[in-house]
Design a protein that fits this description.
- There is one protein chain.
- By secondary structure, the protein is of the alpha/beta class.
- It folds into two domains: 10-166, 3-Layer(aba) Sandwich (Rossmann fold), CATH 3.40.50.880; 242-322, no CATH class.
- It is 44% helix and 15% strand.
- The chain contains eleven helices and ten strands.
- Helix 10 packs antiparallel against helix 11 (306-322).
């Protein structure tokens, strides 16, 4: 960031916390003073840069979690008809202190008319300072039409700049290798050695596992106990001579069949039900009416005889055969 090396260039830095040291701030001022531009968006400018520019960032403290802060531009040609908004409590920062210099220009404000985007001419160049770096994130730009806000904010950088530099050095967490893995991956030879070791280890595990894999025992198929269950249940009803219980089960299975096959409700067994079922199943209405009569007789009696049970069973079985 040498002002003598670049002329009429732009330096863009988007970072939640910009911890510039004194020498960094001096270099930035020299860079801008030489006719370059610096676009910074940060929640925290750092004490050195904030004091130099006469700015102080503050977060709105009187907002509830349910409140939303909206932002917009001051310039009528860029100002949107409807303020830009985002997730609650994410774009609440603003500049609570600005040096009262005639050259400072407020470019953007929030819905409380508090400045959050300013231009500070400095020498032959200018600083563009923004208080909400989230406005330049993918997450923000994908929300409604917020991408217009981002592009309009960056459009303040003069179009005739010769170079545009995107900062990566001052990004939070980019100060240098912080883990052994990052150190290995940052060195070409160590990176190759690491990948070769991983591939070799995986190859060894794969072939060693195949060579020593245990014989898979033969598992006999599970016995089909359905018939045993049916015979057991049938035996219980037969031994107790519970004709009504058998008939109720027979009717219940028939109603389930009607609901699943023809998608007809069985809550009301009236004339509409008979006509609808006859139309969908192709079974004569009289046949269906006979089944319903059996159901009514069953509900009216405490016990039923063998003849009635046999008649009901034959009528229902005949329905299954006649149904489409």
């Amino acid at each position: 960031m040498d002002g003598n090396e670049f002329k009429h260039a732009a330096y863009i830095c988007i970072d939640p916390e910009l911890g510039l040291k004194k020498l960094d701030v001096e270099a930035a001022c020299k860079y801008v003073q030489s006719g370059n531009y610096m676009f910074i968006s940060s929640f925290d400018l750092g004490e050195e840069l904030a004091d130099t520019l006469g700015l102080k960032t503050r977060e709105s403290e009187d907002l509830l979690p349910s409140d939303s802060t909206t932002i917009n531009f001051v310039n009528p040609s860029l100002k949107a008809s409807k303020n830009y908004t985002f997730k609650k409590l994410t774009i609440t920062e603003y500049f609570s202190k600005i040096n009262k210099m005639d050259s400072i220009i407020v470019l953007g404000v929030n819905n409380k008319n508090q400045p959050n985007f300013v231009k500070l001419p400095f020498g032959d160049g200018a600083f563009f300072i923004h208080s909400s770096p989230i406005c330049f994130s993918n997450y923000f730009m994908l929300n409604q039409n917020n991408n217009n806000y981002t592009s309009k904010a960056l459009s303040y950088i003069p179009k005739d700049v010769t170079n545009v530099m995107w900062d990566e050095y001052y990004k939070t967490g980019r100060g240098g290798p912080q883990t052994p893995l990052r150190f290995f991956l940052g060195n070409t030879f160590l990176r190759w050695a690491l990948w070769l070791s991983v591939i070799g280890l995986l190859t060894f595990v794969l072939f060693e596992r195949k060579r020593r894999q245990r014989i898979i025992p033969v598992i006999p198929p599970l016995k089909n106990a359905t018939m045993d269950f049916v015979q057991t249940v049938a035996g219980v009803y037969f031994n107790q001579h519970d004709n009504k219980g058998i008939a109720e089960k027979k009717i219940q299975f028939w109603m389930d069949f009607v609901r699943q096959q023809f998608y007809i409700t069985t809550q009301q067994l009236d004339n509409d039900f008979v006509k609808q079922l006859s139309k969908k199943s192709g079974v004569d209405e009289k046949h269906i009416q006979r089944i319903i009569e059996h159901i009514s007789m069953l509900h009216a009696q405490q016990r039923i005889g063998d003849a009635m049970l046999i008649d009901l069973s034959k009528t229902i079985d005949s329905f299954y055969q006649l149904a489409k």
